[in-house]
């Protein structure tokens, strides 16, 4: 019935907005019906916004084969079908649904920013029926070039014009200028400083007189809470997050993803693992500059009997190389520094009581191969050690953590489906191969269903499958606070040990 009502609305919409001249009726009906959403404008006032929107409509009219419907026309049509026009509709799925609801064939949307003496513009042209992006352009002007001239060039390039056909020089636009360096430095100092202060207060930096050394070769199997798959979205996707770490969850995964964050986010995460561990995490990410992103994190892991407690402080940052080579798409490099403490309580009948101070370094890379494909590489524990102090047996030793190497990928299938993968490649003889994959499917624009599987491959014994599943719900909270709130949950099943893992997470954008 809803589809029938939308069909009636489309007919009414086209009838109301049709040109009145009878002699032009046939020619106008043969034109492509295109909807033009109001441009997002930053750095200028309301008068400029109205002017530049009119300029966009005029430029599209000069193309010659469009029958244009403005956002006001579209909003009037939504009132006729008694539906609410979506506020801040700027993602491709939403724009395409708006056009489909009122019977349009194409949609144009975008934004224009003023950065001191230059303008930057991004325009996207969508085909509603095929659900595909026909063309997308991101252009920046030279200093002093009027915004209307840059808009004219953008509309031309959107319809196939090449640089030789244009009368002004432009370059690729990578977003507005951001100057948030102080917050990056402050939060990084606070995070790592808090880790060191906690280590001093906990007494893990003290050393016994008897220092021992290990002569035997250590295992290549890494340990520590940082290797536990945290956060509900990554956990539901089979721990495949190397190429997706562009949000607050990514602080615990690939630091290179920090350069791809689009706005500030805070995430709170809880995990109940195997009926024995309570794991908690809090992370924060933001942009420092247009090219630099950063993230801070806190991770707590403790067993139900409080026999061992591990606390980790993480500071990550990454730089995106936008203009390194003209033919190369953007890629980023990032690093994460960790400081951690591990402690067990001293008891009268205990044979050992250990306090451990540790530090580590992760290095990551992330590259965009196309608008739909992205890859990620992670060297975890590239430099990592633990200084162990046994206060009862009175000895101290240092243990170096083995590094791991992970490669991941992401592929977007249309607007609603995403496939991810992750592989751990052994660097030591006793490290296993790990292969994992996952899928995320969007439903009703606010719900995402997820599933994944992970398998370790070792020659000497059988290893379990880990099957994961979960969901996410995104709510627009602009009318209340911030921008959005995301609620994620996941479940993991181990096929051999019959153990389960439950994750819940909240991610808040502002």
Strand order of the largest sheet: 8-9-10-11-12-13-14-16-17-18-19-20-21-22
Termini separation: 37 Å
CATH topology of the largest domain: Porin
CATH architecture type of the largest domain:
Beta Barrel
The computed structural class is alpha+beta
Biggest sheet character: 14 strands, antiparallel, barrel
In the residues, how many domains can be counted?
2
**Relevant CATH superfamily of the largest domain:** Outer membrane protein transport protein (OMPP1/FadL/TodX)
Q: How many helical elements?
A: 8
Secondary-structure element string = HHEEHEHHEEEHEHHEEEEEEEEEEEEEEE
Helix content: 10-25%
Q: What's the gyration radius in Å?
A: 27 Å
Regions with pLDDT < 50 over 5+ consecutive residues?
A: 1-5, 16-23
* Highest CATH level, the class of the largest domain: Mainly Beta
Shape: elongated
Overall mean pLDDT: 86
Task: State which percent range the strand residues make up.
Answer: 35-45%
Number of strands: 22
